[in-house]
Design goal:
elongated; mainly alpha
Length: about 70
């Protein structure tokens, strides 16, 4: 569980699931192990996903535009 908690720093998409699973570590059950394995399978399947920031030819032309919807 500690490794998954650490991984949440760079993979916020798993933060909710890991948070729920870690609540039950004082009395773990088989269902919690199955959920942890499901999270590990998800991580394994999405290792190559990410955001690519291509190298700019000139430093003047670098521009990052981001949008966020907090609703």
């Amino acid at each position: 569980m500690g490794s998954l908690r650490y991984l949440c720093n760079s993979r916020p998409d798993i933060a909710y699931a890991v948070g729920i699973i870690s609540r039950f570590m004082s009395e773990p059950r088989a269902s919690h192990l199955l959920e942890a394995k499901r999270v590990m399978r998800y991580i394994n399947e999405t290792l190559e996903y990410g955001i690519l920031f291509p190298k700019c030819l000139t430093e003047d032309s670098m521009e990052l535009i981001a949008y966020s919807d907090v609703d």
